[in-house]
Amino acid sequence: MKFVLLKNTVVSVKFHQVYVTTSEDESNDACQREAPSIYLLLLFRRSGSWRQQFKQRSPYFSLPDHLLQLFREDTKAFLGQLEDIVSPACRGSALGSPPSGMCPKYLKWEASRRDPSQMPKPPQLALLSWMAELLTPSLRLLIDLSQFVSTTSSQTASSTLPQNERQPPKPPPPPPPPGARVVISRSFADFTTQATFDIKKCDVHRLEEGPPVRAELTRDQGLQYYRTMQTVRRMELKADQLYKQKIIRGFCHLYDGQEACAAGIEAAINPTDHLITAYRAHGYTYTRGVSVKEILAELTGRKGGVAKGKGGSMHMYAPHFYGGNGIVGAQVPLGAGIALACKYQDNDQICVTLYGDGAANQGQLFESYNMAALWKLPCIFICENNGYGMGTSVERAAASTDYYKRGDFIPGIRVDGMDVLCVREATKFAADHCRAGKGPIIMELQTYRYHGHSMSDPGVSYRTREEIQEVRTKKDPITMLKERMISTNMASAEEFKEMDMEIRKEVEEAAQFATSDPEPALEELCNHMFYNNPPLEVRGTNPWSKLTSVS
Asked: Is pLDDT at 278 greater than 80 in this prediction?
């Protein structure tokens, strides 16, 4: 992104680098948004002196002497003095907008051209007040950059630096047209590698204590969770687009809004553990290792799909992942059976069995609960409570909405399903419970879907648009994780933007494949009906139509 700070001066911000360029070309209209961290770094330049320095290709900054000395000795005190300079009377306008007299697109100091009576405070102070409101996460960047930036007073800018100061990196050769450039690089070593966060306390049933209320997160884990959730979000939005273009047909149940459930569960179990879910299965198909390309190709019924184009939205499979089941609640007894196999083989594996609040009132669930409790099966029964069973709210469908207590004799926990860390810690707790031989446990994930029940449901006839927007604004799982990481200096906003661009590109390429890959041939229609069977003949729609099934 680029913005104009002074006449003939353009500041460009790219991933991990900041470029300040002077040019005689004043027609550059590429300014898109502001970069607060860089504003503060350049705040005390005198328009004439520092611009002249850059024209002379001097890489050094110019600060007032007393602030320069404080900046070198105590960065925190330096920032505190900046805050003290600004009185409440000269604070700028609302967050995100520059003060009066400063255009947000082209921020120029032209006080000499303005009537002093129209500017109650010097523009430097007005800009500083604006920055003080914006810079809670960005101040850390200034502290991190201090070791890479050589700061001198205007009187000594051209003099030799003290020997004990770290030299700034040499500027790269100026690009055409000729101009001066300063490069400030930020390495991954500048980020916080680990942080601890408070998470919502889980409600428990038949348990003396529940999951922890604090969760540790490493930088690598956070970036991985963000990439997983953002990929699922972009994939589902692309599926929505392809469905509306009538490229995807039939049933299609989207998962956007509930990404923290899939990402948190997968982060807490082993790849060799088992998972089975209902028909809202795209997110779990991805977290279990299937690529976006194979998922979208399956949705469009193409040969390159994960089920070779014959399964569609509700029937996708992977190693240790058993779908994708189209019958409401039917996957729950199957999950109990998988857990029985784990116990029989004594392989220290568990089965995660998922269902929705719409299936929670079915009798086959309670039969599965009973058998799992009698035989102490290593099964985590998880109810993804998104508030609505098709178009019916849980309050209208169930006399008791405490789904985590439905097992009665089985322990249960209720979890914030919009927080990936809360889901991860609760699932770890449940998995340890099962592996310890204590039998099954029930989890209720309180989550929310942004789309309707399926693509045939607009999703706004039984709930308001304001309700959906409120959840997006206050509880979105992706935004929550992103803000946590930025506020603790575990990642930068630019890094997330770069990742978003990579994910968009990946999804777009997958969509291109999903719309160009050929459909399966008719001869493949009956293949894979049985496992490891010799070829057998299958009658078609009429007596003279013969097909062959190959395992």
From this structure: yes
Each residue of 227-240: pLDDT tens digit?
999 999 999 999 99
Q: 347: Cβ–Cβ under 8 A, 6 or more apart, which residues? A: 272
Query: How far is the C-alpha of 399 from the C-alpha of 31, rounded, in Å?
Result: 57
Nearest in space to 396 (alpha carbons), one of 357, 355, 442: 357
* Largest CA-CA distance found in the chain, in angstroms, rounded: 98
CB 78 within 8 A of CB 67: yes
What six digits make up the tokens of 124? 């430097």
Tell me what the mean pLDDT of segment 248-262 comes to. Answer: 97
Model confidence pLDDT, tens digit, residues 449-489: 999 999 999 999 999 999 999 999 999 999 999 999 999 99
How far is 432 from 429, CA to CA, in rounded Å?
A: 5
CA separation, residue 188 to residues 135, 172, 214 (Å) = 21, 21, 25
- What span, in angstroms and rounded, lies between the C-alpha atoms of 386 and 406? 17
From the list 404, 387, 441, 425, the residue with the least C-alpha distance to 201 is 425
Q: Checking DSSP bridges between strand 17-22 and strand 181-185, what pairing results, if any?
A: antiparallel
Residue 456: how many CB atoms within 10 A of its CB? Answer: 9
Exposed e or buried b for every residue in 290-304, given b needs 16+ CB within 10 A? bbbbbbbbbbbbbeb
Joined together, the tokens standing for residue 35 give 């970069």
Q: Which residues contact 418 (CB under 8 A, 6 or more apart)?
A: 260, 446, 447, 448, 471, 475, 476, 477, 480
Q: How confident is the model at residue 167 (pLDDT cuts 50, 70, 90)?
A: low
pLDDT tens, residue by residue, 388-404? 999 999 999 999 999 99
For residue 269, CA distances in Å to 15, 324, 377, 405 come to: 33, 19, 16, 23
Is residue 342 classed as helix, strand or coil in its secondary structure?
A: helix
Strands (E), 115-210: 151-152, 181-185, 194-198, 203-205
- Contact by Cβ (8 Å): 394, 462: no
The token pair that represents 12 in the structure block: 């460009």
Percent with pLDDT over 70 in the chain: 66
Contacts of 12 (CB under 8 A, 6+ apart): 1, 2, 18, 19, 20, 21
Distances (CA, A) of 256 to 17, 317, 320, 476, 478: 33, 20, 23, 10, 10
What does pLDDT average to over the chain?
A: 78
| Residues 340 and 346: beta-carbon distance below 8 Å | no
Do residues 415 and 445 touch, judged by C-beta distance below 8 A? yes
